[in-house]
């Protein structure tokens, strides 16, 4: 099988730079359903995006989403995920194709979890995300290093690496 290069992926999937780092494009929002109530107003029941990290933009910076997110691996090199839960517990996971090495094809991140991602090798890693209730920028917070370190000083080095 012949895999596309990152320029082809960016062009064919019509990806744009993302505020968290990497590239993205919204591919779905549940327009055919009534929006649901959330603490920040009505939201789609579900949205979905493509998300690409590249060797030139290898970091998805620390951020917190209110909604639950399921990540799906598609192509390229593995992507490492770092998660800090509200109680301070840290989790790590790697999305990638090598199941025998412990990589996962899918990762669920509950809303209210701080998250960063990193492409440590290779030219790119392509995933999709399904978000419910649907993603809106008002429901996402990019981390400020000092704020996150004051909440979770035990993870200072990891926080500094990805903010």
TrEMBL record:
This is Cupin domain-containing protein. InterPro entries: Cupin_DUF985, RmlC-like_jellyroll, RmlC_Cupin_sf, YML079W-like. It holds the Pfam family Cupin_5. Residues 8-142 form the DUF985 domain.
């Amino acid at each position: 099988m012949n895999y596309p290069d990152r320029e082809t992926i960016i062009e064919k999937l019509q990806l744009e730079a993302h505020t968290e780092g990497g590239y993205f494009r919204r591919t779905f929002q549940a327009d055919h359903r009534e929006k649901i109530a959330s603490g920040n107003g009505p939201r789609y029941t579900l949205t979905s995006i493509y998300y690409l990290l590249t060797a030139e933009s290898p970091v998805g910076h620390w951020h917190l989403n209110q909604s639950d997110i399921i990540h799906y691996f598609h192509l390229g090199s593995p992507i490492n995920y770092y998660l800090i839960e509200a109680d301070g517990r840290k989790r790590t996971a790697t999305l990638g194709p090598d199941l025998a090495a412990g990589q996962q094809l899918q990762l669920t991140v509950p809303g209210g979890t701080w998250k960063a991602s990193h492409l440590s090798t290779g030219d790119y890693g392509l995933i999709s995300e399904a978000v419910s209730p649907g993603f809106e920028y008002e429901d996402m917070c990019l981390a400020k290093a000092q704020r996150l370190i004051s909440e979770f000083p035990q993870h200072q080095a990891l926080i500094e690496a990805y903010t």
